[in-house]
């Protein structure tokens, strides 16, 4: 499960390999570091909406005392450091002449390229920012559960908030705090996350059991520093007892705690379905990232391509609509546009005179076809054994009943049967629920929510032929 999830993430790299031209990797990497100068969403949307760059009085830093801890005053202080500016300028000088417009567009569209700004996430940015800032100011602990399907900007937004708060610290309008980021993909077993957190906190390597004891000890005395802990891919830390999740959510509420935990998950219903003991504590501190709409996806792509006259605007809208209809995943929209750019570049290089071809709807359509047809096969090929058996169980039930939909309960029974047939230890229900959520998060299956989670309807979202092709290929 865990290794597969890591592979799922790698899926995007795999596809990148498929869609990238051989020679662009170097230039992409070298350009990434130039993008570290981020603008807050508020600033960006203002820049976009207003034709002038002037700020409204309410956000003018001149009107707020410099030492104020208010969020807006902190926002106004966000700027790139001199070293960042120098680095960025020299990188741009080196590359701007040498790169074609297409290459620049491809670099800008790469998912690993931190965007110059964060459009469409203004509210989420504010919510996370205010949550952390309030706890920092009050010297209290707190926990926020951030959820939503992959590619909706959860990690990016949270990282950007922390970056913004750090700028506030540099400008001496916020007290210093320590920030730690851990990703559950990094560990092979949920309890190992303690080891990782302790290592990030102190630099020391200790066993997972020792780490949890040492961490618990820290709450016996009032600390003089707040700790912002970002735990990404929380779904991977589910255990039968849910003790890891329980601790992560409990630590911020210990008497002396100044831990501010931002827990990011794909599943919306982890608190209700799995963490009933603590869900009441989460209270209002829950934030959902909805899939992007086509309007938002269009804006995300358009802003990355600003000043590069290389795309037909209708082509961007077309890509945005295609993605919004399936997943609302920003990564997908960016990848399609990147692939379409390559196709346009190829057309141009074949043309006499080599005048620039704008990337048009035809290129996007071709890119969509290439990517959607292969993406699911790639995903399933890299899925874990248990996920493949889950898909096999769905096919078996389909072949038996002729019904495209079935209940999770029935799949669990069939999955156990298949495990035994293959001499494998069957998974328990919680583990299978994780497998199910993970397949749903990558849209290989579709779920129809139901109050009783085990009665929810499950439907395959790829053709039986494709599934069998992958399963037989891997025998
Ligand atoms: N609002 C946005 N603006 C620009 N790019 C975005 C935005 N949201 C997502 N992306 C792109 O999609 C990628 C995936 O976003 P990420 O935050 O990792 O999603 P999640 O954590 O929800 O799976 C980012 O690295 C970025 O390239
Ligand atoms: Mg993420």
TrEMBL record:
Domain annotation AAA+ ATPase: ranges: 140-289
Any one GO cellular component localisation term in the record: nuclear origin of replication recognition complex
SMART domains in UniProt: AAA (SM00382)
Transmembrane regions listed in the UniProt entry: none
Region Disordered: start-end pairs: 15-90
BP GO terms, sorted: DNA replication initiation; mitotic DNA replication checkpoint signaling
Keywords: ATP-binding, DNA replication, DNA-binding, Magnesium, Metal-binding, Nucleotide-binding, Nucleus
Major place of residence: nucleus
Subcellular localization, as worded in the UniProt entry: Nucleus
Name of a matching Pfam family: AAA_lid_10
Biased segments, Low complexity type: 57-73
Polar residues bias locations: 31-43, 74-84
Composition-biased stretches (Acidic residues): 15-26
MF term (GO), any: ATP binding
Oligomeric form and interacting partners: ORC is composed of six subunits.
Family assignment from sequence similarity: Belongs to the ORC1 family.
Function: Component of the origin recognition complex (ORC) that binds origins of replication. DNA-binding is ATP-dependent, however specific DNA sequences that define origins of replication have not been identified so far. ORC is required to assemble the pre-replication complex necessary to initiate DNA replication.
Protein's UniProt name: Origin recognition complex subunit 1
């Amino acid at each position: 499960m865990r290794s597969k999830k890591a592979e799922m993430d790698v899926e995007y790299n795999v596809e990148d390999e498929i869609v990238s031209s051989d020679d662009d990797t170097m230039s992409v990497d070298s350009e990434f570091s130039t993008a570290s100068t981020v603008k807050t969403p508020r600033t960006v949307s203002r820049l976009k909406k207003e034709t002038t760059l002037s700020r409204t009085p309410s956000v003018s830093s001149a009107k707020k005392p410099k030492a104020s801890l208010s969020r807006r005053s902190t926002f106004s202080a966000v700027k790139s450091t001199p070293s960042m500016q120098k680095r960025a300028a020299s990188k741009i000088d080196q590359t701007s002449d040498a790169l074609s417009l297409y290459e620049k567009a491809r670099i800008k569209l790469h998912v690993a390229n931190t965007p110059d700004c964060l459009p469409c996430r203004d509210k989420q940015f504010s919510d996370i920012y205010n949550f952390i800032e309030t706890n920092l100011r009050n010297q209290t602990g707190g926990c926020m559960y951030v959820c939503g399907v992959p590619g909706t900007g959860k990690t990016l937004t949270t990282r950007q908030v922390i970056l913004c708060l750090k700028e506030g610290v540099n400008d001496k309008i916020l007290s210093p705090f320590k920030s730690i980021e851990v990703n559950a993909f990094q560990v092979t077993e949920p309890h190992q996350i303690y080891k990782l957190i302790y290592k990030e906190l102190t630099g020391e390597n200790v066993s997972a059991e020792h780490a949890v004891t040492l961490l618990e000890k820290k709450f016996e005395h009032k600390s003089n520093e707040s700790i912002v802990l970002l735990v990404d891919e929380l779904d991977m830390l589910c255990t039968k007892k849910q003790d890891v999740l329980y601790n992560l959510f409990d630590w911020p509420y210990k008497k002396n705690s100044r831990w501010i935990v931002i827990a990011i998950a794909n599943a919306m219903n982890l608190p209700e379905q799995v963490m009933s003991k603590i869900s009441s504590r989460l209270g209002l501190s829950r934030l959902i990232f909805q899939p992007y709409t086509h309007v938002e996806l269009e804006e995300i792509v358009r802003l990355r391509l600003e000043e590069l006259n290389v795309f037909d605007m209708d082509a961007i809208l077309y890509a945005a609509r295609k993605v919004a209809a399936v997943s609302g995943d920003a990564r997908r929209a960016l990848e399609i546009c990147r692939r379409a750019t390559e196709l346009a570049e190829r057309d141009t290089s074949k043309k006499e005179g080599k005048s620039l071809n704008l990337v048009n709807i035809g290129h996007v359509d071709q890119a969509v076809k290439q990517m959607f047809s292969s993406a699911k096969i790639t995903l399933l090929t890299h899925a874990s054994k248990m996920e493949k058996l889950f898909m096999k169980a769905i096919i078996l039930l389909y072949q038996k009943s002729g019904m495209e939909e079935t209940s999770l309960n029935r799949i669990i029974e069939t999955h156990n049967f298949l495990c035994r047939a293959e001499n494998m230890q069957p998974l328990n229900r919680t583990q299978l629920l994780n497998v199910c959520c993970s397949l749903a998060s990558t849209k290989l299956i579709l779920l129809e929510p139901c109050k009783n989670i085990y009665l929810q309807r499950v439907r395959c979202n790829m053709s039986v032929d494709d599934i069998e092709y992958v399963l037989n290929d891997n025998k």
